[in-house]
Design brief:
Layout (H helix, E strand, L loop, with lengths): L1 H22 L26 H12 L20 E8 L5 H8 L3 E3 L1 E2 L2 E2 L1 E2 L2 E7 L3 H6 L3 E6 L1 E2 L15 H6 L11 E6 L16 E2 L1 E2 L13 E4 L2 E8 L3 E2 L17 E4 L26 E4 L14 E3 L5 E6 L2 E4 L15 H11 L16 E6 L9 E2 L1 H12 L4 E4 L14 H11 L3 E5 L9 E6 L5 E7 L3 E3 L2 E3 L3 E8 L6 E5 L5 E3 L6 E2 L2 E9 L5 E8 L10 E8 L5 E9 L9 E2 L18 E7 L31 E4 L3 E3 L16 E3 L3 H18 L5 H10 L25 H6 L16 E3 L6 E4 L12 E5 L8 E4 L3 E4 L9 E9 L5 E9 L10 H19 L4 E5 L2 E5 L5 H28 L1 H4 L2
Length: 914
């Protein structure tokens, strides 16, 4: 019986294996049946990105120079042999499994020595011939092209509007984001701009060469390593949006920089071309800010210079290569084509030298990792591969925040289902906050939404004009990218009607429309969104598509539904190019990837500058609105969008600026995004024990809800989200005042007297409205505080701490309860040291002891007398009996001490240990 049961059990064990093996066709899985799911692939979400079909067709018929790719040709993730994709497997692969896929044409991308993946999603380059096999592989859940037809940028300081400036100076806070790392995914970074260095290079004295008693740029000098060099001004020139600049005036210590003109060529030389290396502070000729101690806006005698040294960039990644601070960061400027946008965003986020300049970013203490996505000379096409790698790098670099300064406005199904959005969600689950500007599409004419009843048809009209105006040149619209979205489980018939009346029912067989190329494909996402992609283009990029009005007629809806359309061209970006008639505004205009479940969607309101339609404080007309396609909210917070931010003197925008440190208003939701990323960093600085959930909850719960204009009703809503970000309230529970506090008056007197303590007296200082002041002292003005903040206006040190007769300069800083600060210097001569005078009572005691000593000296010397075979020491006139008594007393004392020692050693030994 036991044998029967044994073999019966053994047979049952083999049944599932046999059934599993019978489920598969060997060709349905690259790794073979034992590595595949038993459940066959069901109908439902589209497995292969339909853009792969477009790319295959274009490569086969037109090649790399197709106008679909823009004037610069195909981007790097498409060529004749391979295409770059994101692949999601049913689980992460081990090394052997990756090797099997590689044998079949899947090259997993490796950057910085590591496979690029987030969870079970991998970046790979795949042979065109392998795509069909991937489509049959049951371990693969989704394959998406990393190519996008358009990758766009979501476009005095607004720091005070969100409470960051107040938080930086407030005595209870003094937060600046130190200890937090932020990844900015952007289009390029300027590592040479003075705004992006820390003032950590030490204090330097300046020399009044012409003895005028004032600082004269171009005349006065600074001494470095025993050599004196002329100091010249590096102006932080302010430009308007038309690139006109304010007149360059006198040196302004609270805004400009000074540099040591080592080679005396009257310009600041930087980078490898200037002969500098990674080890040189600020990557060029010595650069300084003024330590304006008394806050009078001048460089006064006695005040010092602070040298800039360390870059705020921890790393910049460009075109798959990492440029690391301390290794080769200085070289990244030669690799990037454009540095305009990333320069402005990181300036708002982290720029400036707090305490020395007024123009300071919101979280100047953060470490920045810049991921520059590859845009080759403004090629129309873009790629998601760099953005995907940035998400992985953020997780592996222990970054706490990712700021997404990029979008695709037309080709992605913005319902949170894409592989990049899922990678963002994975990173957020690991504690990395995702901040996303919602884009500037609301008034661009590129979005339309219509409700349609079952059995009815709907017509969506768009217009192709004569061309897009680039300066004095009009360039034709040769390419249109268009997507339609609906949510119902039906497939309406879509007909394209051209300006001449030509009609074409759109399906996957469509290939021509008049004399233009036409491609159509559809997909269903795992979140039940249906998408139709339509691309219409001329092979010759200098030829225009037919000018006039086009119509898309949709019919055959089986039940009530809503239809959303997105459209763009190869030139207009956020501007008005090819546009819908009767466009939809204020509804559903937020953009991918702010559609990710994990995204903090950031809208934009006017900070300090009006534009053509809105005033400061009002929600910008162009700012994207929710909801997402599936009805989920997309806007969480609003932030100001228009501070003056650092621009760049290199790349595409360089010729617009005549000065090496330009600033210009930085608008769009791109400018709003870094405000929220910085706010999160400041909270992390102040509450290091909080996790990402607590940080996000605090940001959202503390949003400003008063005086929202326009007022769209109850919050949260699709326009404002929960309101305006307010980091000061998030930190302290109440809003801070926007107006800067009045500066206190500082005063310092040094009291010296030979042999006495040196007293530093700052009690003569005063504060507005009689507020209580706090004081700190730097006695040698060397940047090291001898005493930190205290309410005591006095500080003293013994004269022995100074070199007698030497000259010193001391510094005091004073601050009000709101954090407003000023300071004062005082020069003094160290007092001479005096020999200590003996105390009269101690002198009498010394005299008595001296007399006793003299008496002993004067007494007869000991005599050694040999007696009874031994020795007997006797003093003159001494009594032998007295000596014996003394010896006996000493012996008794030693015996008692020995007993006490034994008692302590045995009973309290632990108490005697040192």
């Amino acid at each position: 019986m036991r044998r029967i049961l044994f073999f019966l059990a053994l047979g049952l064990l083999f049944i599932p294996v046999t059934l599993s093996a019978q489920t598969y066709d060997a060709g349905d899985c690259i790794l073979g049946p034992l590595n595949c799911h038993a459940t066959p692939h069901a109908e439902g979400p589209t497995k292969m990105d339909p853009k792969l079909d477009l790319l295959r067709r274009v490569m086969e018929t037109e090649g790399l120079d197709s106008s679909v790719f823009g004037p610069a040709g195909a981007p790097r993730d498409v060529d004749e042999e391979r295409v770059s994709v994101l692949v999601r497997f049913d689980a992460a692969l081990n090394k052997d499994e990756r090797s099997l896929y590689e044998e079949r044409g899947v090259d997993f991308e490796v950057r910085d020595g590591r496979v690029v993946r987030v969870g079970d999603i991998y970046l790979a380059r795949v042979k065109w011939s392998a795509l069909e096999e991937l489509a049959r592989d049951r371990r693969i859940r989704r394959v998406e092209s990393t190519w996008s037809p358009t990758v766009e940028l979501p476009l005095e300081t607004t720091s005070k509007l969100v409470g960051a400036a107040q938080a930086q100076r407030h005595p209870e806070l003094e937060v600046d984001g130190s200890g937090v790392t932020v990844v900015d995914i952007d289009d390029g970074f300027d590592v040479f701009h003075p705004h992006m260095f820390r003032a950590d290079g030490g204090l330097y004295e300046w020399h009044d060469e012409d003895n005028t008693g004032r600082f004269d740029p171009g005349v006065d000098t600074v001494e470095i390593d025993g050599e004196r060099y002329t100091l010249r001004v590096l102006h932080a020139t302010q430009y308007d949006r038309d690139y006109s600049s304010e007149p360059v005036g006198d040196f302004q210590p609270d805004r400009d920089w000074l540099y040591a003109d080592i080679n005396d060529n009257q310009q600041r030389d930087v980078g490898p071309q200037g002969g500098f290396t990674e080890s040189d502070p600020a990557y060029g000729e010595p650069l300084f800010v003024v330590d304006d101690v008394n806050r009078n806006g001048r460089l006064d005698a006695g005040e010092k210079l602070v040298r800039l040294d360390t870059s705020k960039f921890k790393k910049v990644v460009h075109d798959g290569q990492s440029y690391l601070r301390g290794d080769n960061l200085i070289e990244v400027m030669d690799a990037q084509y454009s540095t305009y946008h990333g320069a402005g965003v990181t300036s708002i986020l982290a720029g400036g030298q707090p305490g020395f300049h007024n123009r300071v970013g919101l979280a100047p203490g953060v470490e920045v990792i810049g991921h520059s996505y590859f845009v080759e000379e403004q090629s129309q096409g873009g790629s998601f591969s760099d953005q995907f790698y940035a998400i992985q790098d953020a997780m592996e670099s222990d970054a706490q925040i990712v700021l997404h300064e990029w979008t695709d406005i037309v080709s992605m199904p913005f319902d949170g289902s894409s592989l990049v959005e899922q990678a963002m969600d994975t990173a957020r689950d690991a504690g990395v906050i995702q901040v996303n500007p919602v884009g500037n599409l609301n008034s661009a004419g590129k979005h339309i939404h219509r409700e349609v009843a079952a059995g009815e048809s709907v017509e969506l009209e768009f217009h192709v004009g004569d061309g897009f105006q680039w300066g004095q040149q009009t360039v034709p619209y040769a390419v249109i990218y268009l997507s339609l979205f609906w949510r119902g489980d039906h497939t309406p018939e879509v007909t394209l009607i051209g300006p001449s009346g030509l009609e074409e029912v759109l399906d996957t067989s469509s290939s021509q429309f008049n004399d233009a190329q036409l491609w159509v494909n559809t997909q269903e996402t795992e979140r039940n969104t249906r998408q139709m992609l339509v691309y219409l283009w001329k092979e010759n990029q200098l030829q225009s598509l037919d000018v006039g009005d086009y119509t898309l007629r949709l019919e055959g809806f089986e039940h009530d539904d809503g239809v959303t359309g997105r459209i763009t061209d190869q030139h207009s970006s956020w501007g008005r190019g090819v546009t819908w008639h009767d466009e939809t505004i204020d509804y559903g205009t937020a953009v991918y990837p702010s559609s990710a479940d994990s995204a903090i969607g950031v809208a934009a309101f006017g900070g300090v500058h009006p534009d053509f339609s809105t005033e400061p404080g009002e929600l910008r007309d162009y700012s994207g609105r929710g909801p997402r396609l599936d009805g989920a909210p997309m806007v969480d917070l609003a932030a100001p969008d228009d501070p003056y931010a650092a621009m760049t003197t290199s790349g595409e925008f360089g010729p617009h600026f005549s000065d090496p440190a330009p600033f210009m208003t930085f608008g769009g939701t791109s400018g709003a995004g870094p405000h929220v990323a910085a706010a999160a960093a400041l909270l992390m600085d102040h509450f290091p024990e909080w996790d990402a959930d607590a940080i996000e909850d605090q940001l959202l719960a503390s949003a400003m809800t008063d005086d929202l204009a326009p007022d769209f009703g109850d919050l949260p809503n699709r326009h404002w989200g929960l309101g305006k970000v307010d980091v000061f309230t998030a930190l302290l529970g109440e809003p801070g005042t926007e107006e800067p506090p009045q500066l206190p008056q500082a005063d310092l007197v040094v009291i010296t007297e030979d042999g006495q303590e040196v007293v530093f007296d700052a009690s003569a200082g005063s504060a507005p409205d009689g507020e209580e002041l706090e004081y700190r002292f730097d006695i040698e003005y060397d940047g090291l505080w001898n005493r930190d903040w205290s309410s005591d206006p006095h500080f003293s040190l013994p004269p022995s701490d100074f070199e007698p007769g030497s000259e010193y300069t001391a510094r005091v800083d004073v601050r009000t309860p709101s954090g407003a600060r000023s300071g004062a210097l005082a020069t003094f001569i160290a007092p001479e040291l005096e020999s200590p005078q003996p105390d009269p009572e101690e002198e009498d005691e010394d005299d008595e002891e001296g007399a006793e000593d003299d008496a002993e000296v004067e007494s007869p010397p000991l005599q050694v007398v040999e007696q009874d075979g031994g020795c007997n020491a006797i003093g003159g006139g001494s009594n032998p009996t007295t000596l014996l008594l003394v010896v006996a007393l000493i012996a008794l004392s030693m015996i008692r001490r020995t007993k006490d020692h034994r008692r302590l050693s045995g009973h309290n030994r632990a108490n005697l240990r040192i």
